[in-house]
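Notes to self, SEC14-like protein 1:
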Amino acid sequence: AYERRFPTCPLIPMFVASDTVNEYKSEDEAVHVIERRCKLDIDAPRLLKKIAGVDYVYFVQKNSLNRRERTLHIEAYNETFSNRVIINEHCSYTVHPDNEDWTCFEQSASLDIKSFFGFESTVEKIAMKQYTSNIKKGKEIIEYYLKQLEEEGITFVPRWTPPVACKSESSTSHPRRPVSPAINIPESATKEGLNNKEILNTSSSPSEPTAGTPDDKLDADYIKRYLGDLTPMQESCLIRLRQWLQETHKGKIPKDEHILRFLRARDFNIDKAREILCQSLTWRKQHQVDYILDTWNPPQVLQDYYAGGWHHHDKDGRPLYVLRLGQMDTKGLVRALGEEALLRYVLSINEEGLRRCEENTKVFGRPISSWTCLVDLEGLNMRHLWRPGVKALLRIIEVVEANYPETLGRLLILRAPRVFPVLWTLVSPFIDDNTRKKFLIYAGNDYQGPGGLLDYIDKEIIPDFLGGECMCEVPEGGLVPKSLYRTAEELENEDIKLWTETIYQSASVFKGAPHEVLIQIVDASSVITWDFDVCKGDIVFNIFHSKRAPQPPKKDSLGAHSITSPGGNNVQLIDKVWQLGRDYSMVESPLICKEGESVQGSHVTRWPGFYILQWKFHSMPACATTNLPRVDDVLASLQVSSHKCKVMYYTEVIGSEDFRGSMTSLESSHSGFSQLSAATTSSSQSHSSSMISR
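result:
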């Protein structure tokens, strides 16, 4: 009856197809082992499938039927994303020891999520939901095929008996080999052989170090091909920072090229580079920047009136971006779209630049980690100095400087008018010194003379509007029609909407002023889940339960801290007169979380009532600092001058009716931040089991 589920089963809609990859039968026909590759259409959000880059997932299932022992053992593991998620399932049909007319069924499964593009908790819930539904349907499916057999007149299958000839032969000159070695394929070899096609392009990019790269030294060919010239000291800094990230994040780390950009931006000062890199990775995760090219479409106004675009490459092979700033109506764009849409568009341009750098590295056979920007200021006037427009420009510069260091190889500013020094005076203080050294400014037609454009760009690709022969497809810009302008109220609401579009919230934690979130639970056995990043400082995470609701925080509860920005709220719910053990209780052990760590976990509620998630400032005992390990010592030293921490968090409650089994515990620990990452290690685990008694 079980074999009738293959090659596909109409009762399991997500089971699309299966192919036999290995089959073994013993000579006496007592043992039959068959291994299949199964194709599944997982019920997951379309966006998640798009981000993952697959429509189907593949599992390998091995069924071992032993007629002598009257057992059927089923083993399954995932082939797709096996480097990010490990799923193992075991099922068995056996004869009941006290009544051989009864069949016992046991089933268990384990889920280990190492990393999944920042969607670890979502994948966990999807997996547990589908696994639970499959358990419920298992008995129904087997009964369906038993009934089908009965309708065909098959109500009895004779028990296996050993053939006489087979016995005598095996006992003389041909001893039978053990079953397991004869049919067992090494799991690692199987996964390696079948899994390559399913791994995402981002995981198999040649720009990542190979698995065989030594921890203490990089391969010389790898450095030359993908990183460029590095001194032994610089190579050592890169390796040490990468190892630090692996130790502290307990998960995926950025590619070497990305780490190198931050090191170069801070002159290979590891502590400074580590700080800005961690902040950037948190920012990328919070605003889902990794997926902006695939999930965000620029408004038509931008496509029509934003006078910028990519145009071939310069003489060094760098991607070339052309911006006709003088022809662009910055005031009109800000009035029609607001700052957020403009910022998001610039971020998409930078993400496209990173992608083009990787492509050009492959094309030219040498490391290309930055691009050239050509800015034409013909037409620049006082309109471009409109205060809100300059404010938007400064904000964009600030975000780009913080998160895309060392990506600008050269900036060519052409046809600078008399008003340019005014604009330059406003923006130059916000530009990093290293970046400013890459600026070349030409007034009038100076760019056409010696030391001009031809020194950096081939004659064949100089745009036509600069006197070249190459047709440039960059939009010409022009005035944005006032009919497209939005009111101040509309723009304000739009900015708020864009700010809260991320599912994460930010909070500040002070010494003596923790941040607390209230969750009301009506049904016991609900599951509270959380995902948070420690952006600054070290914190202690607690979960409390109270039968009575805390008083809502007062408007002036922020006191001297006076946090007003949407990225730094601080809420305290536990009244100072409350006593632990009397008014409220602790339901999980405190968890100390270090700066830069990303923590996911869950708690199955035992009682209804009010649960309080608390992030509390953590300070290291002074006497302990001298005995800290090297990495912790670096972290602790950063806390001396500050009594403020920042966290970015997301919480959700799963109803008891929507979940079965146990999820990640409070100790579920730490994952990496970003799709820029390559290497992975274990980050969080879930386990669920089901038996006939359930």
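- The chain has a mean pLDDT of 75.
- The chain is about 30% helix and 25% strand.
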